[in-house]
Amino acid sequence: MGRINSQINANHPYRKKNRLIKYQHRLINEKTQPQIAYIFVNQAVFIILFMRYLLSVLILSIGYLYPSELSAQNIPFTAPGNRNPIIPGYFADPTVKCFNGTYYIYATTDGNGGGLGPSQVWTSTDFVNWTMQDMNWPTTHNYWAPDVALGNDGKYYLYYCQPTVEIYGASSSTPVGPWTPLFPDGKAVVPNYLVPKVITLDGQTFRDDDGKYYMTWGTWGIYPGYGCGVGLLNPDMKSFAKTAQIPNTLAKDFFEGSFLFKRKGIYYLLYSSGFCEDETYRVQYAMSKTGPMDGFQFGKDNPILATSADGTIHGPGHNSVLQIGNDYYIIYHRHNNPHSGGGYNRQVCADKLVFDADGNIEKVIPTHSGIGYLGKNTIPYPNLAYQKKVTASSYYDAYNPEFAVDDNNGTLWKPKDNSAVPAWIEVDLGKLTTVKSILTQFEYATWYYQYHIEYSADGKQWQMFADKSANRWHGSPAVDVGNVKARFIKLTITGTEQPGLYKAIWNIKVFSEGNVAVMPSNIHHAPKAEQYVQKGLLIDLNTEALQPGEIINSWKNKGVLGGEFKADGKAPFTDFVAGKKAVVFTGQQSLRSAFNVPLSLAGNNSYTICFWAYAAEAKDDNPILSWANSNEQLSAATFGYGRNRDFGAAHHNGFADLQYSRNLPLAGKWHQVAITFDGTFEKVFVDGQINNQENKMLFVKLAEQFSLGKTQGSPAAFSGAIASLQVYDVPLSDTAIQRLYNHVKQEPVSVYLDAKKLPYGKLENWKNEGSAGGVFKAVNGNPVVADASGRISVCLSGKESLVLDKALALTGDHSLVISQFTAKVPKNEAMVTLTSSNAHNSFGLNNTPTALTGQWHYIIKTFKGDTVKLYIDGQLQSTTYTRQTASGSDSLYIGSSRKSIPGFSGSVTSFSVYQYALQESEIKTFTSNWQTKLHSPVDTALYYKQQPKAISPSLASMEAGNQTQQSNLQYMYTRLINGVPVSQSDWQDSPYYLDEGLLADHRYEYTFKIKDNWGNVTGGSPIGTITTSTAQFNTYADEFNTKQDFLLAGTSGSIWDERIGKGDKQSATVIVAANGSLKLESQGTSWDGNAPYGPFIYKNVKGNFIAEVEVSDVSGLAENKVAGNNDAGLMVRADNQLGTNKEQLLQNGIFPAWNVGNLLTNFEDGNRRQTNNQSAWKYNRYLQIQRQGNWFYIRTSKDNSHWVDLPGSPVFRPDLENKTLQVGLYQCTYGPGQAYGSFKNFRLIQVKQK
Hints:
Elements: H1 4-8, H2 49-60, E1 91-99, E2 102-109, E3 120-124, E4 131-134, E5 144-150, E6 156-162, E7 166-172, E8 180-181, E9 204-207, E10 213-217, E11 227-233, E12 240-247, E13 256-263, E14 266-273, E15 282-288, E16 296-298, E17 317-324, E18 327-335, E19 346-353, E20 389-392, E21 423-442, E22 449-456, E23 463-468, E24 478-496, E25 505-511, E26 537-542, E27 554-556, E28 564-567, E29 573-577, E30 580-586, E31 591-596, E32 607-614, E33 623-628, E34 638-640, E35 650-651, E36 671-677, E37 681-686, E38 689-695, E39 702-708, E40 719-728, H3 734-742, E41 749-754, E42 761-762, E43 765-767, E44 775-779, E45 784-788, E46 791-797, E47 801-804, E48 814-821, E49 829-834, E50 845-847, E51 856-864, E52 867-872, E53 875-881, E54 892-894, E55 905-914, H4 920-932, E56 944-952, E57 955-960, E58 970-977, E59 980-984, E60 992-995, E61 1003-1011, E62 1024-1027, E63 1033-1038, E64 1044-1045, H5 1046-1049, E65 1058-1060, E66 1062-1063, E67 1066-1067, E68 1070-1074, E69 1077-1083, E70 1096-1101, E71 1105-1114, E72 1127-1134, E73 1144-1151, E74 1157-1164, E75 1167-1172, ...
Antiparallel strand pairs: 1-2, 2-3, 3-4, 5-6, 6-7, 7-8, 9-10, 10-11, 11-12, 13-14, 14-15, 15-16, 17-18, 18-19, 20-21, 21-24, 21-25, 22-23, 22-24, 26-40, 27-28, 28-31, 29-30, 30-40, 31-39, 32-36, 32-40, 33-34, 33-39, 34-35, 36-37, 37-38, 41-55, 42-45, 43-44, 44-47, 45-46, 46-55, 47-54, 48-51, ...
């Protein structure tokens, strides 16, 4: 079946080709299908990520490719008349049955993002001419690996599976339904683990010679002790008389897709091994002469079916077997040609099975020619279009128009683009002839296409043969009838059910005689498709009209959609960053479009997104723009600037995610990024050059608006700067992307300094954010960064200077802009100096008595030709003229360049050099903006929302007031002892502060201050005082020095109240404390709502608390070798009944697999959200959970002193209000492997209640 790999794993919703499942910093809602983004865990399964890793390692050393002489590839896959694939379209996991002379193919509906149905069946009486029709059941989201059996009672029984790893059943009086579920309550026929150590999936029935029915099933049977399930069905066909396991020691490499049949007294179990997504997928078999439930031995000549040497028969597997007389045929799926991305565009093929004299199955010779007719040809008339001359509106790459007339279900005509513009193909029949019927096989049989067919005698004058431009019927083939004389037939496809679907066809067939196929009516009806057209440049955002420091509550869109982006909560701001004016996001801000996302970006539609981005530090998940809000596979559209090895560039949920190449340094440098998608290939360009590309199909489900700066529906947010962003609903060409990169204007600001970015204290270097780059270095002493009259400033005493460490040419027009403060009457001091300036500092800027003391001033000096103008606070102060010119290689100083010239004594908050002379209108605007920013960050006196208090002998918490939802305020806390400052925090966005490293039984004082986005800063808040006296705490500690087997003896005599691991729905192999360590060990356990639950030792706690522990060891740590999905750490849990999936818990865990490292799990009544820090084996081993009311802080530490919140912390859980919680240590494996976690120095601290 295969999709278990990508969808049903409890811990990893999907894989990326053979790069494995994405388990990276994602949020996923268990009630829905997998999303991108964050790790999500659907009970549906627990199939383990490690399984994929282990299997991939094995596959690297085993190449299951047939030699070319065995693959019969003398006939290429493009040869006209090929009979493989046997049906047109993407279908997988085929079961073929023959009932009453009619062949039926029951198969997974593939190529739609995850086997999403609808349920359908193909019928034929000759095995060549097939018709598809809907079935009424199932109507579930997924429809995987169906099978139908004709019971001894004359009823037909349909079985299929879902990613919940269960098999369901229904019955009917016909092979095509209508179907009635076997259990009215929808209960599964085969629940997961009905047979121990057999994961349920891919059920297939077998009728023995005595009339008894058996079923085989299973997936991921590669683990030690695992294998394939088999059961003897009772006559009711929904329960079992007995069950057993066929172990993988006999059915070697058993993975999925079992099929049982009997020949000449020998039972054959065929099954698939390897990855269904790639070339390793193959068919193997085992034989038994004993019976269908035991006695199996691994077959000779395995694998019997595998990828061909030329790769055109690629990943064959998940087969059924059809017996016609003494002949046996293997019906299997393989990947389409050319191979689509992800491996989920599979097609059904058939070849002959051959046995040797001893009954061994010989290697199958896979062909493109197929097996042909197995019955009388139902259309024994010539196809007038076969291999005739064709022309088309266009074609994409190698998808030639000739493929539409080659009677080959493995070749496709596809137009050049997937736009809303109609596509057409014209067939020249060669002569005027009668045309009575036209059969069209569109690419997707389960979606409708809108089209019309015209005919002509001369290719010039056209008449309508069939007008289906309003069609909403789906199926295959589409049949249109008439009775005309024509030489030319023209098919024009005007629309598709799915947005962005290519208007492609497998075959068009034209007949002049005979009966036509019946078009079955639809059971599944789709809504009318909305109409849309591509408009080109939809969004165009740039910073030309924005001023540095400006809060961006609204960002005007200059694209065709118009409108604007508005702040969604906190607003970003404009600043100069590394030479570009940009809009800055700190992970706290986002913007949302005031206009809706157009339909031209839905589904598989094409697009281009282009942006200039900068990030000081590389983040794993760093989303910039999103226009979808869906958890389903391939349905998301988030584009970012992150290092995640799967979805760093584009996040679509699943194998279609796209990353930047690993050697790209994202941090500390501006890059132009362009991501294009043409409906087939998604490409990433960096700085005009191709960086990565992948083949894929998307099913984007639109959000209402665009989100800029965050992923919709998740906490992931952008940290960095954006200088420009464009979105097109067309794919730009490679050369167009290169032109965009080459035609970027340089910012006309060569120097830009802003003191608000500097740390307090002596200043050594001040980075120039202007286009000239470089840094200003301190000379003749160090200026000091300090608060001056309510602003963070660089303070000079008149002796110190700062000089740019690179030459700056100011020979043309330019302007100097500075914001300054002086406390005393200024003399003729040099504020800005060029080394070529004369004694009067003609090319620099002096502080003059014109500027009043005791207040901030905004001074601008412009140089235009020989005219020099000086402005103070927007008012023209003087106009002078000079015939001198500055040097072309000046050194630029803040302060004096010469000891003979007095330096500036005062404070500077900002300084800029513009490479042109500012106009008076600009000067007025700049000054006005500057003046509006001169105010206190807050309007009220500072106060504590939460007074400082000790929450443990080493930790204190507090929270500043004076906060608003929209403000971009930052907070700095100072710790004092007896009024003397001893430490200071960094500026932080959160008003909540945790002070660490305190000493027990000490007294501390705290004050805080606030700054805003413009560098305005408050004074200190009132002092708050705490004591860390140990007498005020209840501390429960266990250093695990006392040997105790908690699993056998329970928790009596310890600090613990109870343990989970022994009893109903729970399991553990070890819960033992000894020698300073607690070891928790288990096998096949979970903490996702599924039994059995892993070990958990806990204390019942009510009220606020802090719990800490060191995870001293986990399985595989010594070798840095992943041991399955081992998960161990701290847990907080409500006392709920086990196994109800109504868990209310929070976990701070260690999960080394998939580079996760430290993992936060937030599980609430079926919704399981997880975030992580991508630290892998470099995880922080000290874990902490703090409860403060309904807020839970999930933190980690490298040194047990400095604590850092995990992504997603704090977590708000009002459902746990006033509840007594189980707080303690847990472990589980999320899979059949055995693993452990070891812990040291647990402690739980609560403030005593007064």
